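During the reporting period the student researcher (J.K.) took over the structure-prediction task from the postdoctoral fellow and processed the backlog of single-chain submissions. One of the processed entries is reproduced below for the supervisory committee.
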Amino acid sequence: MKTRKIGLAVAALIVWAACAVPAWGTTPSGIIPPACKIIADHANLLLPCYLNDPSDVNIGLAISWCFPNQTPSCVFWYQWPASAQNALVLAFVRTVDWYNNGMTNYGGPLPPDPPPNPNQFAYSIGKTIWPELNPNDAFNIYIGHLAVSLAAEIYKWVPWGLHDYDSNIPAIDALLDGEGLFSFDTNGFMQPIILDATPGNAINTFKFLKTNNLIGPTRIDTIGLVLDWARHNLEHFGGTFTPQYFFWNWQYWGYPPVSRVIAGTRDMDPIYPPGGSPPTHWTAGCWGTSAFLLWVLKVVNIPVEQVAVGGHATPWFVSENLYLSHGDDPYNAVSKCRRPAIRQRIYW
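J.K. obtained the following structure tokens:
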């Protein structure tokens, strides 16, 4: 198991203002090692060359996953079984082809979105606390996100580069490390470590950002655009953090699926008339919004971590070292009345 040395700020504020945010410098994306340029048009050859090149060692070492029935279980990309390495390469090739085809016609099966919960019945009646995932589903979700992140880096789908995080372990791990996303439980299934949102297919999340013009020229602009989308669209769900309320709001026995927060759902709580509430982009409060932002911004290589503060949660935009004062900030009464912009103000 890898060890990490991560320092967290005790508290922070986001200041909402109507002024522009200055651009932040970054290492550009699209830096292909000289040894790999001759095969740059062949995605199936380019990705292994890229990850195995000494110039990209920090990226390769950040990619890690825990496999069942092997010792050691948790290993870096370089130590993955050949079948797992090939699965990532195939997901990468299909993702690049999908993007080049106008973000249509993905060339293979996608994991079910949202993923099925194998202990759905036990979870629904309160016999178990946490939803579970089949290990294959969890791995496919992980490599799907890796494929988008690596394609966005190599083919310049976003302007900023992963090499901007070479000396920022929390940032690169937040984007690429699978050990920090899922872990095995005693039943042989996997549980999400990042609670309060259920990830799905990364290509759909990327397409959502791209088609809604939420990818800006810089990371900070992109964060602002996504927060502004949240300001206009997200609504705090009603009820408690229980399986029944999750099912009423998102029709899923588990944490809110990212795809259904984006699409909008009807709250089927019996307090509403038959047919439920109007379709709404429900979010599971500060915890759910922090996790939602983590998964959404991950696909454009902007690292986010969910930070607990006083029984509540807020997102930490790791690369910018910025926080919201509270995960509910994007859609509270103050932010609804003006366009937000982020200013750094951190208390240690």
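The committee noted the following: Residues 251 and 297 are 24 Å apart (CA to CA).
J.K. will present the remaining backlog at the next meeting.
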